[in-house]
Specification:
Layout: H1 15-20, H2 30-37, E1 42-46, H3 53-64, H4 84-90, E2 96-100, H5 109-126, H6 138-149, H7 154-158, H8 160-172, E3 176-181, H9 185-195, H10 204-222, E4 228-235, E5 251-253, H11 269-278, H12 285-292, E6 295-297, E7 300-303, H13 306-314, H14 330-334, H15 340-350, E8 355-358, H16 374-381, E9 386-392, E10 395-399, H17 403-420, H18 425-436, H19 440-454, H20 464-476, E11 483-487, E12 490-491, E13 494-495, E14 498-502, E15 509-516, H21 525-542, H22 547-551, E16 559-567, E17 570-573
Parallel strand pairs: 1-4, 1-5, 2-3, 3-4, 15-16
Antiparallel strand pairs: 6-7, 8-10, 9-10, 11-14, 12-13, 14-15, 16-17
Helix pairs in contact: 5-6, 8-10, 9-10, 18-19
């Protein structure tokens, strides 16, 4: 078995099955050591979905669980086995409670509570050997059976983790490890059902119900529980005002901005390189990096999306494409991503620019609609943005991490243009393709058609050139990963409006300068339009806006200098090579 080529298994988060079936496992076993030896009794480690949280909890369970003594051999080839004294003292010595709440999603509180009862019942069934224990009292066994049969009261379910930890401590004589995966999944869904676009009539109290349940459920499990040895909770973020954790004095959050545990979720650069080498795909490393790298957790750069890496390797004959789909927090994101306050900033991000925002470590759902800036915290903690560096107290420079996520945003823009503004996706893509292939007449024709269909939706306000520039950026967002799109950057002796830098140096590079003139019709208007086009072209040449393209080895004969003049919803274009 040791010499047999390892395989990949997608979607399996059971550590034992992965190792026993000779599937490739990226060694995160030192998380076990770091977790246990952390000064805090209860740890909350928020990370984006599909970054390995469930598998890591399964790994921790198999290492510590007193009921899984045959699991010791599973760790023999991994780093934790070198911690000999630690393994001798702690491996398979503790009862473990491992509960996932990721599937708790319902349209009302009654259905949500039924799902919670079922999950807790299944958890108790895993430990139903306690019903044969001569150390438990008869009333404890009666309560145990009621939980399994789902006939217990709501209060009994609220305090069920506390009771189960007591039963386990009584039976085994050792304190218990409690692991909770995706604790915030039912809370996020409850919020959206109560207050978001998933709102159902009569569901206003759903959110209050689930928050009240979770406050007691987790509080009883972790606060002052004398049966607790150690606790680990995962989710997307810390939820604040609901006071779920506020009274825990043995509790510590290690978010994506913390240096602790930074390399334990997601794949590091070396781990990714080793995977690609093992599966004979290292020749594609540069593209893999461009598509799936880019995350920074704490002080660790170049964290790769593990879900995307595994899917790419498994299906490598397909072209590079997005594999990562957030299945929980994107409920919150979808309804806010195309609000007017976010569109311009989103287009800047797609164009490769960064933004500076405050990341609120104590996230409050009820503030989302009032405090629009919280949206950027949500995007970052959910994995759609990543930090570049901290620039002040809780202030971070943020960017889109990679081509995969940029493509997700591009598809949102395409959908926004296609549905909200009723422009066909094919027209958007073909128009952008005409531009990058130097078919300017065809580009102008397509662009005029788009403008005619959409411009009534835009208000140019007091800064028309900026609005038009944002509009062109939105159109160019459909270009995918072939170009780096920049705006308002210094190049030569000034700032260009938009620059398209191709990854393939044999392709055209493009610099765009935008001008506007008033819409009044008069005999000399065409002359004024031509003058504006010439003025924009002279500005490109005089200020050498194309210098950045030349510095990036784009041949002079492949540089398109493109003046665009807007007259209301009419557009005029010509180019110079």
């Amino acid at each position: 078995m040791e010499n047999e080529k390892k395989t990949l298994k997608i979607g399996n988060s059971n550590f034992k099955r992965i190792v026993e079936n000779n599937h490739y496992f990226v060694d995160k076993t030192l998380l076990i050591y770091d977790f246990y030896n952390n000064a805090s009794d209860v740890l909350l480690i928020p990370r984006p979905r599909r970054f390995g949280k469930t598998l890591n909890l399964s790994m921790i369970e198999h290492f510590f669980d007193v009921n899984k003594k045959d699991s010791a051999k599973l760790f023999s080839e991994y780093e934790i086995s070198k911690k000999t004294d630690f393994c001798n003292n702690h491996q398979n010595k503790y009862p473990v409670i491992n509960l996932s709440l990721k599937s708790i999603k319902a349209s009302n509180w009654d259905d949500c509570f039924e799902l919670l009862k079922n999950e807790i019942s299944q958890l108790f069934i895993k430990h139903d050997y306690l019903l044969d224990s001569d150390k438990l009292k008869s009333y404890d066994k009666s309560n145990f059976e009621n939980i399994i049969l789902q006939t217990a009261s709501e209060t009994d379910y609220k305090i069920s983790l506390n009771h189960l930890s007591r039963y386990l401590k009584t039976h085994f004589g050792n304190e218990v490890l409690i692991l909770i995966d995706e604790y915030d999944s039912p809370i996020i869904y409850g919020y959206e059902v109560s207050f978001g676009k998933l709102n159902n009539q009569g569901s206003k109290n759903y959110y209050n119900h689930i928050v009240g349940f979770m406050r007691t459920f987790l509080g009883e499990a972790f606060k002052g529980n004398e049966n607790l040895e150690k606790g680990l909770i995962t989710g997307i973020m810390r939820i604040a005002r609901e006071s779920i954790f506020s009274e825990l004095n043995n509790f510590k959050v290690f978010s994506i901005t913390s240096p602790y545990f930074a390399d334990k979720f997601g794949f590091t650069e070396n781990e990714t390189k080793n995977l690609l080498k093992y599966f004979n795909l290292f020749d594609n490393y540069s593209k893999v990096k461009k598509w799936y790298d880019g995350y920074t957790f704490g002080n660790t750069n170049n964290i790769y999306n593990p879900w995307s890496i595994v899917n790419y390797i498994a299906f490598n004959e397909e072209k590079f494409k997005p594999h990562w789909v957030n299945t929980g927090s994107d409920i919150l994101i979808r309804e806010r991503i195309t609000e007017p306050d976010t569109e311009n900033t989103l287009q800047k991000l797609i164009a490769g620019e960064s933004i500076v925002k405050t990341l609120d470590q104590n996230f409050v759902f009820n503030d989302l609609d009032e405090n629009k800036e919280l949206f950027w915290t949500l995007l970052t903690f959910s994995g759609y943005l990543t930090q570049i560096k901290e620039v002040g107290l809780d202030m971070y420079e943020l960017k889109i991490p990679n081509c995969e996520v940029r493509t997700v945003f591009q598809n949102i823009i395409i959908k926004w243009y296609g549905i909200k503004i009723k422009v066909k996706r094919e027209l958007l893509i073909s128009t952008a393709e005409y531009l990058v292939n130097n078919k300017i007449k065809e580009f102008e024709k397509g662009f005029k058609q788009i403008m005619g269909d959409t411009f009534s939706y835009f208000d140019t306000g007091n800064n028309p050139e900026r609005i038009y520039q944002s509009y062109v950026l939105g159109l160019l967002a459909v270009l995918g990963d072939e170009y780096i799109i920049k705006s308002n950057r210094e190049s030569g002796e000034g700032r260009y409006d938009i620059l398209l830098l191709p990854h393939d140096k044999s392709k055209y590079g493009i610099v765009i300068e935008i001008k506007t003139i008033k819409t009044k019709d008069h005999p000399s208007r065409q002359k004024e339009i031509n003058q504006s086009l010439n003025k924009a072209l002279k500005q490109i040449n005089k200020n050498k806006y194309y210098k950045e393209l030349i510095e990036n080895k784009i041949a002079a004969e492949n540089i398109i200098k493109l003046p665009i003049v807007f007259v209301g919803k009419e557009v005029y274009i010509f180019s110079e090579l």
